[in-house]
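Suppose you are handed a protein chain with no further information: no name, no annotation, nothing but its sequence. What can you learn? This example shows the usual starting point.
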Amino acid sequence: MTIEVKVPALPESVSDGVLVAWHKRPGEAISRDEALVDIETDKVVLEVPAPQDGVLEKILINNGNTVVADQVIGIIGNGAAAAAPSQTVSSTKAEAAEPAQQPVDALASMGPAARKLVADYDIDPASIDGTGKDGRITKTDVLAFLKSKPQAPAKVESKPAKAPRITPGLPEVEEDRPQKRVPISRLRAHIAERMLHATQTTAMLTTFNEINMQPVMELRARHKEAFEQQHGVRLGFMSFFVRASAEALKRHPDINASIDGDDIVYHGFCDIGVAISAERGLVVPILRNAEYMSLAEIETYIVEYANKARDGKLEMEDITGGTFTISNGGVFGSMLSTPILNPPQSAILGMHKIEDRPVAENGEVVIRPIMYVALTYDHRIVDGKSAVTFLKTIKELLEEPASMLLEI
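A reasonable first move is to predict its three-dimensional structure. Written in C-alpha cells, the prediction is:
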C-alpha cells in the first residue's frame, strides 16, 4: 500500500509555494509526523510531516519547484529502506546540486535556518553539538561551529595571471571582480510587492516627536531583576511601547482603523504587530488583544515569536491580521526613519535609538536619554491633527509610565 505526500492546504491569500528541501531521499525510512519536506510560501516556511510510517519511494517534485495546495509531491510505501536509486529523481542536475547525504535524525530535527547553513557549508551535523531542546541543533550552534572551525588551506589553481588594470592616478586593480547571483526568496518578493503597493495606493505622511526615556529606564532598572525572577523573561522597552500604543489606540480609534472598499472599518480591539528581523526577512507577528496584556505577557509573546522566527516555525495565524504595527529600527542603530505602512492598517509607529541629548527643563539645559519616534499614517483615513495627538499621547504615557500602568 502506498500513500501520496501532498502539499497541505494553503491560506486564502497564498496561491502557491516553493519546495525548499526534502529531508529524506528515496529508499530511506520515515516515521509518522517526522518532518519530511519544507515548503516556502510568501509568508512562512511550512514543514510537511510524514502521513505514516514507511519508506519514501519516490520524489515527484524536486527542490526549487513551485507547488500548489493538494499537489502530489512524493510517494511513501511499506517497502524496506534501500539506497536511493539515481533514476527516481527526475532531474539529474537538481540531484547533483544537493548536498551530500547527512545523518537523517540530526538533519531532520533542525529548523530551516540551521539546515540551510549546514547545506551551504557542507557540514556533517554529527560534528555539531546541539544546545536546543533534546539536543536539537540550532542556527546559533551551526554559526558557533563555523566560527570555531579551523580554516582549510586555500586551494591553489593554476590559471593564467591577469594583468592589472592601470588607470593614471589610481592604484592598480585586478580585473577579477566577482559577483554572486541568487534567486529572490518568496518572502522577500512578497515584502517588495506589499511595500510597493503601500506607496502606490495610500496617502502616506509621517509625523515625528521625541520621548524622554529616563522615567521608563529608571523604572526598568529598578525592577528588571525582580521582574525576570518573577516572570522568567527580561523586561525590555518594547512592552512599554505596546502598552502605550494600545492605550493610545483606544483614545484615537481612527488610528486603529482600515479601509475596506468604500468603507472605513473601526476595530474595537488592538491587534498590534511587532516587526521582527529574521534570516529570511522582516516578519510581523501579531499580539492579539494587546490592550488586555500585562508587560510580562507582552515580553513572553515577543520572545516566543522571535524564537519561532529564528527557527522558521512561524505559522500563518501568527502573522495574519493586525490593526497597528510597531517597528524598532533602534536595535540596529537607526536614529530616525519613516516607516512604510502595512496595508490595510492606517498607521505604523517607528522606534529609534536612545541617545543622550541636551534638552531644556525648567529653564536649564540638562542631558536626557531621548528617543525620536515617527508615526506614518494614511491621510485618507487619518487627519494630521489625529496623528499628531496620537503620537503626543504615546509620548505622555511613556514619560509618565506609572500613570499608564496604573491606568489613571
